[in-house]
Specification:
Elements lengths: L8 E5 L2 E2 L4 H15 L3 E6 L1 E2 L1 H6 L3 E4 L8 H18 L3 E4 L8 E3 L4 H9 L8 H12 L4 E4 L2 H11 L6 E3 L11 H5 L2 H7 L7 E9 L1 H4 L1 H14 L4 E8 L3 H9 L6 E4 L5 H7 L2 E4 L8 H8 L4 E4 L16 E2 L4 H14 L2 H11 L5 H19 L1
Parallel strand pairs: 1-3, 1-6, 2-4, 3-5, 6-7, 7-8, 8-9, 10-11, 10-13, 11-12, 13-14, 14-15
C-alpha cells in the first residue's frame, strides 16, 4: 500500500482490531471513508492484523501493551496514543473510547448501564473499562461523541451531562453482498437437514458473537420451555456464540429440552444460519446496537428484539409489535407462537429486508464521510 506523504494524516485509536468484532468492523469502515476523503490513515492498536488494516486502506501501528490487567492498562494506551500523536501531528484523531481526542469519540458500549440491567447493581470503583470511559467522557475534550443507538445517547446525556448537540447517533452498517435473501436462503433445506430440523418444525435462533448473560440466553431457554409446553415437538432452537454454554445446556436439560436445542460457536458463513431460521430472537438485557439483528433482517428473516436492543429503534412505528421487554418471557412466547402460526414470516421478512436497505455499508460510509468532513471544517 502506497500513501501520498503530503496527504493529511488521520489516526484511528482502538486497542484491538480483529475482523470478528463489531468495533473492528467500525474502525475498518471509518478507514475506508477517510481514504475516500483524501486522508492517509493509520490505525493505532495494541493487537491487530496488518493485512486486515491494509485491506481497509490503512497502516497498522502496534503500540506496546501494558502486561498487567487493570485500569492502568487502558490509561497506558491513552498515553501511548497521545505521545504518538504529539510526534506525528495528525489532522484528525478518532478514538474508540479509550483515548482522549479533540475530534470524535466512538463509543461501543455503556458499561454502567449494562451492569444495572444485567446484574442490578453499580460497577465497583476502579472498574477497568468504566474508569477510562468516565475519564474520556467527563473530560469533554471531544467535539463529538458518536454512539450506536438512541439508547446509548440517552445514557451518556444522563450520566455525563453531554450536550445533545455533541452526540451523533451512527447506526452500524451491514454488507449487502453477504447478507441478502438470495445468498442466505440458497440451500436452506439442506442447511436445515444438516442442523437436524425435521420438515414442519419451526427453527427459532439466537445468534450472537458471545457474552450469553448479556444477550439473555437464560431467558431464551425459558421461552423454549414454555413454547415446548404449548406445542410439543413443534419447535427447534439454535444458539450461536463464543461463550461457555454449559450452564445454559444444563438449564435446557433440566427442562427436558436437550434434544430440541442446537449449540454452535461463531461460524464464517453465518448468513446461511439466518436463512435457515424461521425467526431470529434477541432478548438481550442490553445490546448497544446488535448488528446481528440488522444482518438477520437483511437476510429477510423475521426478528423479535428486546426493548433494550439498539437495533429495535429501526422497528419503531410500523413494526413496534416486534419489540418486547427483555424480562417479559411470556410476551416473547406469545409473540413467537403467533408469528409462527400466522404463516406470514416470509412476507414479514421481505418487508424487514427493505426496511434496512438504507443501513448498508455504502449508505453508512456516505454518512461517515459527511461526519468527517464536518469535523475537518471545524478544525479549519
Amino acid at each position: 500500500m502506497t500513501d501520498d506523504s503530503q496527504a493529511p494524516l488521520a489516526v484511528i485509536a482502538i486497542r484491538q482490531v480483529e475482523k470478528s468484532t463489531g468495533a473492528s468492523r467500525n474502525a475498518f469502515e471509518q478507514a475506508r471513508a477517510l481514504r475516500t476523503l483524501g486522508y492517509r490513515v493509520v490505525i493505532l492498536a495494541e493487537r491487530g492484523r496488518q493485512a486486515l488494516a491494509e485491506g481497509a486502506g490503512a497502516r497498522l501501528v502496534r503500540l506496546w501493551r501494558w502486561p498487567l490487567k487493570g485500569p492502568f492498562r487502558r490509561f497506558w494506551f491513552n498515553r501511548r496514543v497521545t505521545a504518538w500523536c504529539r510526534r506525528h501531528a495528525p489532522a484528525l484523531l478518532i478514538s474508540h473510547g479509550d483515548v482522549e481526542t479533540p475530534d470524535t469519540v466512538y463509543m461501543h458500549n455503556c458499561v454502567h448501564l449494562a451492569s444495572q440491567l444485567i446484574h442490578g447493581r453499580e460497577l465497583p470503583a476502579g472498574h477497568e473499562v468504566a474508569a477510562i470511559h468516565d475519564h474520556v467522557l467527563s473530560g469533554g475534550r471531544f467535539r463529538q461523541v458518536a454512539v450506536n443507538s438512541r439508547l446509548m445517547a440517552e445514557e451518556f446525556q444522563r450520566r455525563y451531562a453531554i450536550d445533545p448537540a455533541k452526540i451523533e447517533i451512527s447506526y452500524p452498517g451491514y454488507d449487502p453482498e453477504v447478507f441478502n435473501p438470495d445468498r442466505a436462503r440458497a440451500g436452506r433445506d439442506e442447511r436445515r437437514r444438516e442442523l437436524g430440523v425435521a420438515p414442519g418444525t419451526a427453527l427459532i435462533g439466537l445468534i450472537t458473537s458471545g457474552n450469553f448473560p448479556k444477550r439473555n440466553v437464560a431467558g431464551f431457554v425459558e421461552m423454549a420451555a414454555a413454547l415446548e409446553a404449548r406445542r410439543p415437538g413443534h419447535y427447534h432452537f439454535l444458539v450461536v456464540g463464543k461463550d461457555d454454554a454449559t450452564p445454559y445446556q444444563r438449564q435446557a436439560a433440566q427442562a427436558g429440552l436437550s434434544e430440541r436445542f442446537l449449540w454452535r460457536s461463531t461460524i464464517s458463513d453465518v448468513e446461511t444460519l439466518y436463512g435457515a431460521l424461521d425467526l431470529f430472537v434477541l432478548p438481550a438485557h442490553i445490546e448497544e446496537f446488535g448488528r446481528v439483528s440488522l444482518e438477520a433482517m437483511a437476510c429477510a428473516t423475521p426478528v423479535l428484539l428486546s426493548r433494550t436492543t439498539g437495533a429495535a429503534e429501526l422497528l419503531e412505528g410500523e413494526h413496534a409489535d416486534l419489540i418486547i421487554d427483555s424480562h417479559d418471557t411470556q410476551g416473547f412466547v406469545m409473540r413467537i407462537d403467533a408469528l409462527i402460526a400466522s404463516g406470514e414470516g416470509e412476507a414479514l421478512g421481505q418487508r424487514l429486508a427493505s426496511l434496512v436497505t438504507p443501513y448498508s455499508y455504502a449508505c453508512q460510509t456516505e454518512k461517515l464521510k459527511s461526519s468527517f468532513s464536518k469535523i475537518r471544517e471545524k478544525r479549519g
